[in-house]
Amino acid sequence: MAEEKDPITVDKEFTEAEVQTKKEKKSPIKLITRIVLIVSLLFFVWYILSERHTPYTDQARIKGLVTPVTSRVSGNIIDIRIKLHSQVKAGDTLFLIDPSPFEIAVLKAEANIDNAIQSVAASSSSVKSAAGKLGVAKAQLERAQRNWNRVEKVMRDNAGALSESDKDQSETALLQATEQVASSQANLDRAKQSLGDSGPDNPKIRAAIQDLEKAQLDLAFTAIVAPTDGVIESFDIDLGYFASAGHPLTTLISHSDVWIQADMKENNLSLLKVGDPVKYTFDIAPGEVYEGTVRSLGYGVTSDQTNKGGLPNINSKNSWLRDPQRFPVIISFDNETINKLPIRLGGQVDVVAYTGNNWILNAIGSFRIKFNSWLSYAR
To answer: What's the pTM?
Structure first.
């Protein structure tokens, strides 16, 4: 006969089972686990998609053109018209070298021309005038050639760093200076022809004219001028300083072109193309987000210690997984941004790019860059 349980014991066991069932129903562990797994999966999917559709990087810097200001002649500085961090315009005189020795050299060269022309019984006025104009034209050509050489160097070292307008402006200035030299040379040839048949062939006259051209060039180079608009940096000389030809006196940070170099991972570039919109933030302007466009994409970086051809050198972060290779992406500034903010070369930038019209990923990317702009308050 089956053993009958005490009713009190049965009620107690039933109560304990009911409590255990309620505890299992109320336990949040399974729910939390599911939520964490779903959130992790969504985050992983977002990360994979955003790396290609809305790539982001905090490895970005403000870049620009830096020009060492040098003297073409040697001499003592008698006038300094700038200070550290001065704003200058193209053509502004920065330094004056004592012109006395060079003025004497010009007078001596002119006297030598007079003597040479008198020896062949010809007038010297037209020759001196033409030679002087040719000297000035050659000085302008020399400056235009140096500026064009800098433009070519920047284009070789960092393709796309200069806009087409900047390139055309520099090239046009070089062509105009070349034409001016040719025109001045033609005028000088006519002046020498006026001396008579024996004039142009006279070696004394040719030597005297060349000496005058050289003296006038040297005199023109005693005024050291700014090659472009910019800011003076690394300036520490005073009156009386002996300027040696070819040695930098100061550094000019040019305003002719400023850009952002964003070092993006290789898989960020799969959908990125020139003209894509970007948003970026500066540490100098926390809470503000600015807009720009992709100007160009890098096609090579140095991969070993032998940097052939001066390829960009990208410093990658070290981690326990292999860090993907990064390539420079050049981003154009908005002119309003340049005028509004005190842009400084080397400043850090956070950048997010938009490769398409995916409104979900674009919205998340916009929130991300805005959130990072707020973090700039704490940096």
So the answer is: 0.63
